Amino acid sequence: MMIKRYGLARYRQTLLLVAAALCVAMSAPVLATADSPNAVIDSAVVQLTEMLDGRKEELAADRQALYALIDEILLPRFDRKFAAQVVLAKHWRSAGAEQRTRFIEAYYQALVRKYADGVPEFDPDRITVLPYRGDQSKPRTRVRSQVILDDGTKVAVDYELVKRKSGWLVFNVVIEGVSYVRNFRAELDAEIRSSSLDDVIARLEREADAGAGPETTALEAAESVAADE
Fold it and tell me: For the segment 184-194, what is each residue's pLDDT rounded down to a tens digit?
């Protein structure tokens, strides 16, 4: 289990660094599908470094400005509909059109707020994108990287991308084998079963309006799923 292996403090730091790494993936230019998925991530490191230059303290103190920056780089490069569909799994099939639309937006806002604090922590020297080993002809692929923590520990951080006409779009991040999408899917499935999809959507919307959700949600979900592996 990742939290037991590294400790809670180290896992929290991993989440912050992954937030920055996630932002790297999503700040990549929209490229043609022929471009290497690794090129998407590599070029994004440079772009995000430039976007954060001289603004880290400002963004750390101003959450609205931070959210605006994330929206600017995230919305065109993140497959919100596909990510939401994967998270809802079987509940997506039974959801109505309005429920799907609301959930897509609510899930996106939950993602932004859950990981926003890590974006100003971005340090390009801590991220190493590993040589690409996938098959670009397939509709989905994975880009592997390593993130170095303060104590020198190397943490595996993988980006899952889906191929679209506009290029490769990110829909998931996997930390040391623990998938964000899988964690969130397990968490929401249990909540939907005990209440309803409408209640879950309403909760996510309330948390977005409040500016952030419970800090422990991601940690608890990650520990619960990892315990089953």
Answer: 899 999 999 99
Beta bridge partners of 172: 160
List of residues 6+ apart from 97 with CB closer than 8 A: none
Q: Which residues contact 68 (CB under 8 A, 6 or more apart)?
A: none
Query: What fold characterizes domain 2-227?
Result: Nuclear Transport Factor 2; Chain: A, (3.10.450)
Alpha-carbon distance of 216 to 87, in angstroms, equals 19
Beta bridge partners of 127: 147
Question: SS3 of 101, please?
Answer: helix
| Helix, strand or coil, per DSSP, at residue 116 | helix
| 154-164: strand order across its sheet | 127-129, 140-148, 154-164, 167-175, 178-179
Distance (Å) of CA 193 to CA 53, 57, 226: 45, 42, 21
The residues, ordered by sequence, that sit 6+ positions from 49 with a Cβ below 8 Å of its Cβ are 122, 124
Burial of 42 per CB tally in 10 Å (0-12, 13-18, 19+): middle
Position 81 pLDDT exceeds 80: yes
How many C-beta atoms surround the C-beta of residue 207 within 10 A? 18
Q: What is the reported pTM?
A: 0.75
Strands 178-179 and 140-148 turn out to be unpaired
The C-alpha atoms of residue 159 and residue 172 are separated, in whole angstroms, by: 6
